[in-house]
Amino acid sequence: MPKIKAEKKSRIHNEIAKQGIQFNKDFGQHILKNPLIITSMLDKAGLRPTDVALEIGPGTGNMTIKLLDRVKKVIACEIDTRLVAELQKRVQGTPYQSKLQIIVGDVLKTELPFFDICVANIPYQISSPLVFKLLLHRPFFRCAVLMFQKEFAQRLVAKPGDKLYCRLSINTQLLARVDMLMKVGKNNFRPPPKVESSVVRIEPRNPPPPINFVEWDGLTRIAFVRKNKTLSAAFKHSTTMAALEKNYRVHCSLHNKEIPEEFDIKQKVQEILLSAEADQMRARTMDCDDFMKLLHAFNSEGIHFA
């Protein structure tokens, strides 16, 4: 009988297996094991020796060790205390120990310190909230090179008219320049995820656009509920109208403006859409400039989305 080759495992994964540590899929633990992909991600991040780098979900430290080689300091945020212990053991007694700061906890609930750059293999279930946590972080970081689920990455970079263009696309592209860097097959991870992955580079726009992001998000939320419908149709939903009327009345009260007895919020909204020549526009084909003009048109008439 032909010999069956034993499955190759890295030394670190062997150590973890001996201790009975199973990767926790609830935390999205799919450890990136291919050193060539790790090196490529770090190369594309444009690291400098003076940088403070943030890594989210360092796992067993495969990327962390290579990061520590290239930057002044690494801040690693890890939710799993078992892997924190492994990472600490891996740098103990080495020159890396003093360069590594580990934050134990959920990154979404953690107040992040200053960092120049973020390089990470992101747990896929926190992708969307994490992107906006990073983009709204101050002071600004220079760029982030992040691994995401392939379809999520495609949504981030989608352009108006693309099938995957959505609220995530336009909200991200308002705040940052986003580029697709490379595709990564599922066999590059342990355990392999069920989906393919992609690496994306995100550079925050600095200075940011002069927009209240909460208002912007409120507008795009309404427009993209049914992105193929005209804005005229999208703005006829009763709950949307009720929220806008409430905001309008608060605005008028704060600015001592009288509201006519026959005031009709639906009519007001349709008049604004017509005057902005946006009533027949559809969210799926609108870019950031289109939404900026529309938000300005609503705000100048006292209609607010937050």
Task: Lay out the secondary structure.
Blueprint (H helix, E strand, L loop, with lengths): L10 H8 L12 E2 L2 H10 L7 E5 L5 H9 L2 E6 L2 H11 L8 E5 L12 E5 L5 H9 L7 E7 H8 L9 H9 E9 L4 E2 L6 E8 L8 H11 L7 H4 L3 H17 L10 H11 L12 H13 L6
Parallel strand pairs: 2-3, 2-5, 3-4, 5-6
Antiparallel strand pairs: 1-8, 6-9, 7-9
Subunit structure: Part of the small subunit (SSU) processome, composed of more than 70 proteins and the RNA chaperone small nucleolar RNA (snoRNA) U3.
InterPro entries: KsgA/Erm, rRNA_Ade_Mease_Trfase_CS, rRNA_Ade_methylase_Trfase_N, rRNA_adenine_dimethylase, SAM-dependent_MTases_sf
Protein name: rRNA adenine N(6)-methyltransferase
- State the low-pLDDT regions, or none: 1-10, 16-21
Provide the helix percentage: 25-40%
Coarse shape: elongated
DSSP helix count?
A: 12
Compute the CA-based radius of gyration: 24 Å
What percentage of the residues does DSSP assign to strands (E)? Answer: 15-25%
Structural class: alpha/beta
| Quaternary class | single chain
Average pLDDT: 91
- For the report, how would you describe the main beta sheet? 7 strands, mixed
Give the topology string: H per helix, E per strand.
HEHEHEHEEHEHHEEEHHHHH
Cα separation of the termini? 71 Å
Strand order in the sheet with the most strands: 4-3-2-5-6-9-7
Give the tally of β-strands: 9
Provide key terms for this protein.
two-stranded antiparallel sheet, disordered N terminus, alpha/beta, single chain, 7-stranded mixed β-sheet, EC 2.1.1.-, 306 residues, 9 strands, elongated
